[in-house]
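Researcher: Please translate sequence to structure tokens.
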Amino acid sequence: MRIEDAEKHFDIAVLIPCYNEEAAINKVVNDFQLAAPSALIYVYDNASTDSTVEIATKAGAIVRTEPNKGKGNVMRRMFSDIEADIYIIVDGDDTYEPSKCSEMINQLIDYNLDMVVATRKTDNSSGEYRWGHVFGNWMLTRSVSFIFGHGFTDMLSGYRVMSRRFVKSFPIMSQGFEIETEMTVHALQVGASYQEIGTIYDSRPEGSESKLSTFKDGFRILKMILILFKEEKPFQFFGVFSLLFFVVSIILSIPVLITYVETGMVPRLPTAILSTGLIILAFLSLISGVILDSLSRSRMEVKRANYLSYKSPKER
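Model: Translation complete:
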């Protein structure tokens, strides 16, 4: 389906979260006006201290403000406020290819998908997509795939096309850059259909600075992965601790048992008490995992039912 045909049958919204992007926002808005002429372009300013709001307004975007800082807070507000059939979300730093949106929309509609993700090419590793970010993205993406099943190859991409069904069924908890991680896990958990498409990831324009802190935000994303692991797969999460406590307890108890068999005495009383305590912790962790897993399954059924209550693009 051509972008012109898609715009005749579907309401399309371009969502651009921004914080201090005066150097890039004008070009981003203009480029998406050309790439998707009939789409409504929303710029959500996240308490910028520069001229982002004024420039975006002059460029023809619908500008709104979210005072609570953090990309997750902005996206929660955007997803709640804006009604559309197809959502295009893109960073306001002019690092992605606006021309790719027509191909991404085509895939979403033709294959009845919930999400199309623009995976960044790494041949520009000397520019904005530095090797440290590439490695960190790879490591975090592989971690999510290992825990939740095979998923995306570029989990942290900020350029996506999504269906109304996905956007409106997504309960956002994140406040910052860990939002992409939560979005990925939600897609895998509810069984949302998705595809990926390659895109060139360019350097920021002169005067624009990255808001991403490699280590600080990396640890926040890792923390979100662990939280989601605990919330969505509690049996496996607490099972790991149960196994760890059990193994350490057995290792500590072996010399105590050998001494007891040989002499009938327990000279290492503190070790024996520690070993007993660890065994108790192991069983408590296992029981906690079993109970919480039942609750998680019930919550997942509700989440899946909510997701299915919305029509897919072709059922609209």
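Researcher: Any highlights?
Model: The domain at 3-231 is CATH 3.90.550.10 (Spore Coat Polysaccharide Biosynthesis Protein SpsA; Chain A).
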